[in-house]
Every structure is written in structure tokens, then in C-alpha cells.
Amino acid sequence: MAFLHNLCWIEVEPRVAAIVLCILVPSIFCSVVAKQVPFPARKDYFSVLYQQYKFVVDGPSMIKKGYEQFASGLFEIPRTFRFGQVILCQPELIEELRNKPSTLVSPEPWIDQLLQVSHVMPGYFPKGMGWPKIAKTTPGLIRATVYKHLHRYMPSMNQAIISQLQTLDFKDGSNFALVGSRLSRNEEYIKAVKDHILGMIVTTRVQFLVPDRLKPYIGGLIGRLATLGTSWDMHASRKIMLKHFDARAAEYHAEIFSGNQRETSLDESDNPVEIFQWLYESSVLRERWTYAEVIGEMLLLQFAFIYTTSYGLYGALAELARRPEYIAPLREEIDLNFSRMGPTVPACDGMVLMDSFLKECQRLHPPSALSAHRVCISDLKLSNGVTLKQGSHVAVPSGIIQRSSEHYTNPDAFDGFRFVKRAAGGAKDSRLVDLSPDYLVFGMGAHACPGRWMACALMKLAFAHILNQYDILLPNSTSLPLTGSLSFEEFYVPNFGLRIALRRR
To answer: Which residues does UniProt call coiled coil (predicted)?
Structure first.
């Protein structure tokens, strides 16, 4: 039998959980967003204490319980940060949130809380100026490059996937769009990126539980203890990445002032635009932001690009291994489109069966039970009369909505070609990249994921090459769930006992 190559997720060591529990107790704060917002349980101190602990280890089940009680309204779950988590269930309230301008509700404070940006990325936030201007500019930049000119990036993305499959050392093809061809192939840099992402996940989640007033004193120490003895030291991997960023920036600088290099144009260039280069040029030539802000933005972009695509592929490969009846039609579609058009944007757009299969996997296995996170910039009065306090965190229970019988027939059953059938019946918003009230993996409204077109194209290319070259197996069990028995807050945690094996055809 051919050698089986195993793909697995790395499990966080038990001591991390112990550190979390040690920090959890002093960080408790009984936060009530508004008296009119109900809790799924009592609001007394000890009940809130238990709910905060329960949300850390099994957030999705608490969200489901609250949704079952308050499907026609909204409810609050206490979190370990100093704000309550309001969850909107009523479709009218969700639509209201989608249409609110950023001056009233913004995702930026949530991102800072989630990733502890202001604590783990010193220099990214200009002192006293709030969320950096660069973060407000990057979504438009991504839409102007990897969306508008996605075809420019496809050859390099495809080549990166092919070369990685030869060694089964899976990295991320989207790095090409961020840092260009040479750096995206550098082994030291790529390893540092992966270690930094794993370290960031662990470190920020532990720092998340440290009271804000103590973070300047013990936050860094706690973060380092969380990854002690692993290769995920976020600070060590960041030093390696900074070394490569600095070297690349020096090359950009020399080109800019050599007199032979024109400023990068997003529209005129026939070649893919390196996002890092454009951000650096904006720093040097137009003084729009500092170099520290450029580095901070690059670190955040890498986290966003790689985490979403890897989790999506994990779910798709596991589901396909369980459901071999989908293999033949998917392979036939891949062969047809690649033989006619090669690994191009039109070929990926033409793989409608794969598009539907991947979307069904994301519908049933999203990375989080909540999406469309916003924070109230000021007191916010909703149409149902409830006023949310300034600083309140608001989100949508996307994991429950995507399994609702109101939106889907037989919602808990896997139907890989569900969205092809819906499109044939005249339904809109059936593609993987589309946004709709019943599919919220990429968020909603103006703050929906701007890089979803590249993420979807990357998943399709990787999935197509894997499916054409390998048989996909689950050697230990086909009945194990994709997620483990515990989650972390609203985020689903992969089942570390599940092994995905690839056998060359």
C-alpha cells in the first residue's frame, strides 16, 4: 500500500488551559449591557460567574440555548472581557445591524479585543488616535488588487500549491499576494508565519482573560508562558519575519529612490501587486502611516488569510473522505474545466459543483458560531426599543442560522450540491463568495471579508489538485466529529483525534 500522508491539527498543551483557568477567576466582571436585554440564565453574580466559565469552554452550546429561547429577539451572554456579548436573533434586528454605519457600530474595537492588537503589537496603534488609518485603507486595497485583478495572482498561487503538494508541506498560496514570489517561497519566512499564527491564537486568547489594568505589567509574561516549550513563540517568530520584512523594505526603498522605479499602480501594472510593497510606498512617499503600522497590518493580514483557508480545507477534506459518492462528479468537473481553461479564474468559476460542495462544508462547519461582530461607538437604540450601552459587543448567531429550517430544507443533513440545486431553482446568492442573511461565514454588509474571492479561489485550486492526485481517507474513524468536545468561546476547535490521510492515486 502506498504511504499514507497524515494531515493533522496541533493540539494546545494542557498547561495552557491551566493558565487560562488561573487567570479567569480575577478577571470576572458582572457586565450587563442593558436591563432590557435578557440572559438565558439568571443574572446573579454566581450564575454570571458560571456562564463566563461555560462560555470559555463551550460557547456554541450557550449560543444555541439562548437562540432557542429568544429567536424572535435578542439576548446577552456574559464574557470574560469587560463587556457583555449581545446576540441578535430577529432577522429585522440583524438587517438593522447590517445597515448601521461605522460611526455607530464598528468591528474595529472587536478585532482589537479578539487579537489583543494594542497589547501584542506595540506601535500599530498611533498613540491617542484610535484605530490606525492603515487598517481602514487595507480592505479597499484588497478589493482593488486580489479581487479586481485576481487573474494576475492565479499562476503563482497555482504553482505554489503544486510545489507544496510535491512534498506535502502545506503552506498558503495567498502569501504571494502579500509579499511576492521570492519571500513567499522562503522556508524560514513561511515557518515563522505559521509559528506566529499558532502563537498568536494561544497568546491572544490567554491575554484576553487578563484584566486590562494588569496587561501592561503581566500581559507579556503570561503570553510567553502560554507558548513555553513550543515552537509557537510569537515574539521569536516575529523577529524572523521582521528580518525578512526589513530586507524586502530596503529593496523597495532602493528602487523608489533609484530614479528608475515608478510608484506602484493598482490598475496599470500587468503584474500582481505586492500588498506589502504598496503599503510601504504609501508610508515612504505619501507618509500616510508609519513603518510600524505597515508591519502590524501585514501580521494581521497573514493571520486572516491563512486561518480561514486552512480551516475551510480541513472541513472539506474530512467531509469528502466520508462521502466518496462526490468524488467522481467533482473529478470530472475539475478535468473538464482545467483541460479547457487551465488553473484560471474562469475555470474556478466554472466548477459549480465544487463551489457548492465547499459552501455546504462551510455552512455546516464554520470556524465560529458568531459572525458580523460590531461594537457600539455610542449608546445605540434599536428598533425594538432596547438601548445598548456604549461599548456593547453585538454579533449574529451565524452557526445557528446556517442550520435553521427557516432557511434550509433538512438543514442538518449534508447535501454537497445543495447550492447548485438552489441556483437552478432561481435562488440568488448561491455562490461560495456570495453574502446572504442565511450564509454569514464571510460576515455581512460593508465590513464583510474583502479577501473572500482570493480565499475561495485558493481553496478551489488546492482542493482540485489534491482530489486529482490523491485518494482522501480517514484511517482512524469515519464517524468522529470534525470539532472536539470543547470549544474556545464561540470558536469551534478541530477534533485533534481526527486524522486525514492522503494516498497517491
So the answer is: none
